[in-house]
């Protein structure tokens, strides 16, 4: 409720239809992509343009793919997720860890370590978005970027109530509100895929 009040949202904004064990829900590995090929390509292009080669990347709420460009080398790519088998299958990860951010929003990573933090099609599940994004800001280098992308797909019973109540434009405004309240600068939205021929995809980028 505290974060909802800080964000000016209804008290039950972060309630879910299924408030059961998240680790149990995500225990079966899902080795699929949650956006189509065109949306993946657009996201990869954004990553190519936004993340410096040789930089350090933290891929939060990741899985067996990170959508980073194959031909760009990074100093380190660290993955976080809810399923060890998915993360172990991700060839881009130098190391990874399993953690339920809804239970423990703190990150066991050093201050100002990363050039970029990514959250791909996962922000709708965060019940403590400000706590998580303030941690993201802490682990980013000054001027580093967070890139939050989302589509119109989700596991509806695990998505928070405010997300389920909004359309795509509302989702973009909500994520910008998260970022700005968490202390990020220059929060900007980009339509990566408009959804007319496939999955829609929007990215919101902010700077630490």
Tell me the overall shape: globular
Count of distinct strands: 7
CATH superfamily: Vaccinia Virus protein VP39
Gap from first CA to last CA: 25 Å
Highest CATH level, the class: Alpha Beta
Order of strands, widest sheet: 3-2-1-4-5-7-6
Strand content: 15-25%
Helix/strand structural class: alpha/beta
The helix content is: 25-40%
**Secondary structure tally, helices:** 7
Using the coordinates shown, work out and report the CATH topology. Answer: Rossmann fold
> What is the chain-wise order of helices and strands?
HHHEEHEEHEHHEE
Mean pLDDT across all amino acids: 94
What does this 3D model show about the protein?
The chain is 28% helix and 25% strand. The chain is of the alpha/beta class and 208 residues long. The chain has a single domain (2-207), classed as Rossmann fold, CATH 3.40.50. Strand 6 and strand 7 form a beta hairpin. The radius of gyration is 16 Å and the shape is globular. The two termini are 25 Å apart.
What is the secondary structure topology, with strand pairs?
Blueprint: H1 2-7, H2 22-25, H3 37-50, E1 56-60, E2 76-81, H4 84-88, E3 95-98, E4 114-120, H5 129-139, E5 140-150, H6 161-164, H7 168-181, E6 185-194, E7 200-207
Parallel strand pairs: 1-2, 1-4, 2-3, 4-5
Antiparallel strand pairs: 5-7, 6-7
